[in-house]
Write a structure and sequence with these properties.
This protein has 145 residues and is α/β, with parallel strands linked by helices. It is built from six helices and five strands; from the N terminus they run βαβαβαααβαβ. A five-stranded parallel beta sheet has the order 3-2-4-1-5, with helices on both faces. Helix 2 links the parallel strand 2 and strand 3. The longest helix is centred in the last third of the chain and has 13 residues.
Length: 145
């Protein structure tokens, strides 16, 4: 039985973030931000990848699994998470190839989905993890770090 982890770096220090990954035995971080830029030092794509690689953790970026800009803009205006999640679920149906690629990676590695939001209940990564569980159909467990 495989395990898929997720993590948000909001309000985490780099030390706490990397410790959480290492303690969970993560071998691959999968960045599911559409645009992997951050105002937080060390969490933009280039610096993050370098820090992960120095710790023996691979980095993959799946921009296709980021929430599209129009959905994020609508969420900022309405704060309607139920609507946002419903629309993101529909969007994921257009990303079958990418989701299959991610599901394959999850079968072979200890993966962690990365986004900004600390609480997975307010982040699209919980929907991606759920879809991977469905594709896996072998009892994949999901843990949020």
């Amino acid at each position: 039985m495989s395990t898929l982890f997720t993590i948000g770096y909001e309000k985490r220090t780099q030390e706490h973030f990397f410790s959480a990954l290492e303690n969970a035995g993560i071998t691959v971080v999968v960045d599911v931000r559409q645009y992997p830029h951050s105002r937080r030092q060390g969490f933009s794509k280039t610096a993050l990848r370098a820090n992960l690689l120095s710790r023996g953790i691979a980095y993959y970026h799946f921009p296709q699994l980021g929430s599209p800009p129009h959905l994020r803009a609508k969420l900022r205006q309405t704060h309607d998470y139920a609507s946002f999640f419903a629309e993101f679920e529909e969007y994921m149906y257009t990303q079958d190839t990418t989701l299959q690629e991610l599901a394959s990676l999850v079968k072979n590695e200890t993966c962690c989905l990365l986004c900004y939001e600390k609480d997975p209940e307010y982040c699209h990564r919980k929907l991606i993890a759920s879809r991977i569980q469905t594709l896996d159909s072998n009892g994949l467990k999901v843990y949020h770090l």
